[in-house]
Amino acid sequence: LDEAHLAHLAALVRRVDAPWCSDHLCWTGVSGVDVHDLLPMPYTRATLDHVVERVKRVQGALGVPFALENASSYMEYAESTMPEHEFLATLAERADCAILLDVNNVHVSAYNHGFDPLAYVDAIPADRVVQIHVAGHQDRGTYLLDTHGDHVKADVWDLYRRAIRRCGAVATLVEWD
Predict the structure, then answer these.
(1) Most buried one in 57, 129, 157, 177, CB count within 10 A?
(2) For residues 88 and 125, what is the distance between their CA atoms, to the nearest angstrom?
(3) Which residues share a beta bridge with 133?
(4) 92, 94, 95, 55: which is closest to 167 by C-alpha?
């Protein structure tokens, strides 16, 4: 963890009196090199143990609930031993953290990797969801690309309605870049 960055973030959280703070469930670099992208993790028990410990440290430093957002993905790791939704749900339980459920990201990743987006939404612990995101994406033929640069598609709105039925009236953000 970048302790200096975490201290600055905690100061910001206190200054704006944020009820919670969030970040994507991903990695963005290694050995001080930032790749400026949200890269997926291998969904293994070892990775889960590592991330649980990190989330507990972050949440403790922030002093407010920490929510993890599922990111769109375009690749998977052969070594993964569990689906993303199981990893995220287990992480939220073990680290006692919140979830920011991005249903556009669920839709994009489900299309790209061939899993059921409804099963994903149904597997997320509804009581841990503090916010939902919807956004537009682009169909590139063989894959979907999360761009936030288009209107929210009907399939994403359908997934959003399902999430709201499960989670109740949680805050929603329409992302548009």
Answers:
(1) 129
(2) 9
(3) 102, 173
(4) 92
Whole-angstrom distance, CA of residue 164 vs CA of residue 177:
24
Q: What is the distance, to the nearest Å, from the Cα of residue 120 to the centroid of all Cα atoms in its chain?
A: 12
Give the pLDDT of residue 73.
96
CA 74 to chain centre: 14
Q: Which residue has the tokens 């929510």?
A: 67
The predicted-structure confidence for 145-159, as pLDDT tens digits, reads as follows 999 999 999 999 999
Residue that has been written with the tokens 């375009």 in this structure: 74
* CA dihedral angle for residue 35, residue 134, residue 113, residue 44, rounded to 10 degrees: 60
Phi and psi at 148, nearest 5°, equal 60, 20
Please state, in angstroms and rounded to a whole number, the distance separating the CA atoms of residues 135 and 140. 16
Structural contact between residues 72 and 107, judged by C-beta atoms closer than 8 angstroms: no
Going by pLDDT thresholds of 50, 70 and 90, the confidence category of residue 34 is confident
How many whole angstroms from its chain centre is CA 47?
Answer: 15
**What Cα–Cα distance (Å) separates residue 103 from each residue in 11, 44, 99?**
30, 23, 12
Residue 110 clears pLDDT 90, i.e. is over it: yes
92, burial (CB in 10 Å: exposed 0-12, middle 13-18, buried 19+): buried
